[in-house]
């Protein structure tokens, strides 16, 4: 079972800005998260960097002046979105990936855009890819779309103390959304080229996989019974297609880090967007053993009656 921390811990949401056209939307997403958590919002920028945004100064190179101007504009935007929000800024020298990883050590959440340049591309940039491996706190990656509808989707490995499952349940509970919990079914070793479908309802392999998924959901379903859960067993050959549908239709995709990295790799390299497509849903990457902050009124383990 995941650790649970009190509401007074990890009370900073950090958001990285870079001057790109999507920075303001990323700041809005971070401000909403900070308000929901009753946290302060720290807007950060790492210099040196190459600006593509409207705050670039055309005269002689003045990195600190440009960075300060960018941060001041982002802070005004966040304050306008929520006047009661505590907003602070910080400018730091260094490579963006390294600096953001350091900021994440003291944060409860780090929010970034999926890339700093060519934001119409669906694949993640080098900074987002690096932070998927090195971020010390949960990482929320904005990918161009934030919609207040659709389910929360998470992948379930079936391992003990599932790193992201509790966070997915909490996000669904706070949003009043359904939760889709997907578990990949790997093909038997003696059938490397054979698709496991079609299968019968009584297929023993499928039944065993479905039972493992149900067992993984039991504890959190009991603690947050208001969340309607849809378990989904996905053959491994169908994982890329299922993930693509989730990124297009969900309000949030939650995944754990620290394993083999297969799911994170698929998320960070999605297929090309079709014409007229306006981006994918945000992705929340949760480090192993990161504690879960429970909503008020959640059943505690001691309240459970067994036997």
Automatic annotation (TrEMBL):
The UspA domain, residue ranges: 11-141, 161-287
Gene3D superfamilies, per the entry: HUPs
Protein source organism: Actinoplanes octamycinicus
Family matches, as SUPFAM superfamilies: Adenine nucleotide alpha hydrolases-like
Family according to the record: Belongs to the universal stress protein A family.
Superkingdom per UniProt: Bacteria
InterPro entries for the chain: Rossmann-like_a/b/a_fold (IPR014729), Universal_stress_UspA (IPR006015), UspA (IPR006016)
Pfam families on file: Usp (PF00582)
PANTHER family tied to this protein: STRESS RESPONSE PROTEIN NHAX, UNIVERSAL STRESS PROTEIN UP12
Protein name: Nucleotide-binding universal stress UspA family protein
Taxonomy of the source species: Bacteria, Bacillati, Actinomycetota, Actinomycetes, Micromonosporales
